[in-house]
Amino acid sequence: MATHKRTRTGCWTCREAGYKCDEKKPHCARCIRLKITCKGYGVKLKWQDGNISTPVKRPRAKEKKSVHQVTSSSPVSIVSFASTPATFTSPSETTSSPESTRSLPLILFSPPQPSPNLSPTDRYLLHYWTTRLSTLISVTPRRHHSTPFQQHLTAMLHDSASLRSTILSMSANHLALSSHAPSLRIHAYRHQQDAIQQLQTLIQDPHHAATEPALATVLMMQVSARLFAADDDASAVNHLAGAQAMIARRGGVDESSSTRFLMSIFAYHDILSSVSRGAPPLAVHSTFSLEDEAEMRGIAAILQLVARISRLQHWIKARRGGSYDEPALTEEEDAEGRDIQDELLGMDTYLDGYGGANQDIAHTASAYRHAAHIYLHRTWLSIGAPHPISVAHVTSCLTHLSHVPIASPLTSSHTWPLFTAGCEAIDPQQRAFVKQRFADMYQCKQFPSLRRVMRDVQDVWGAKDEVERKKREGVGEGMARVDCIQVILRRGREVDLA
Q: Is Disulfide bond there in the keyword field (predicted)?
């Protein structure tokens, strides 16, 4: 009888099933033949809580490895919160620089703290993070000399090998795209593997696991996975569970400005990930401001209502068990929906004077409010376009987004409202605006996630138009019942909304 040998380099679907994979991209032949989701070839991390006892198979003698011996060829890295002390080491140069990178303009970087020994290419990548990439990721206005990412992370990464490797990987990925230098992906992959190894070592020491650099590393891994995951990777790595475990270990420590900044990044990604997962957030977030900037508090307040909508959605779905034959709403669910709606309506007056002289903030906050209305009505009342209420909020949301210049830092936070309103758009001109807006945002920022989200929106349009066509033929209820998020989740991946 033939046996199946577990593949080590194939797609994740074949690896998990133990079948040989032909490794064709973007999808392997076996997955296409069986009509199953091909989960891609990207690197995965498994976050495992060391406090939970789980049965582990005893490895064969020749396969035994310590955490220090994990190599870059290992596709899966188990990161656990163990109490065993470990040595915190700096990264080493494991590969030589690609020939093409030697032609890059070398700009010496003068850090606020002594820099470790870096290759010329890595010094350039670090400079690129400081002067370019950190400004593209940040969503706050450029009123200060530096962005919050520069203020809180740049100094921190000089003392943290894992954070430094993560930042260098992100810089190499982005520079490979923006400068059309694909050889830089070798550096991106090497630094990603270094970061995984260094983080594994770091978090085994309870003291180091509770530090700001450790939390910053995990959160930046989350940001990197969302922005730069390969198009053929069906499931971006989700580091939020690891970040939540780290925050729990920190306990009631005094919050510095850097801690508040990191907590705001966690809250932002956790809440928007709850939307894309169709599940409640991992944590209940107290009052915060985006990137710990006071002028962004209004947007954060709306995100907290979005978190409540995600929890309401979870309650309703859990009770219904996936069936619309169950009662539409209980009294408690209806009361929660009305309360959230009242708070969103009450924000209309509050946002009129919000943002002060910076109208980009005011328009972004208003777009978030209308997107939250769309999400609430889909969750609470199971309605969407072409219902007049949804159409009105779509129009208002897109109008506010159109008033923000494409080069504004605020557009880095526009993915969720643009996706939410875009999916419900039925007017051809509005759909054309959504496509062009995503294209312009990508041209400005060069984040692959923007192209993926636009393709997700187009898939939703295709699903909605198909059910609407069937409705005209007397079959089904039409596009109003199509849940945008569920269309994407059926393909085995989340939408990159953060």
A: no
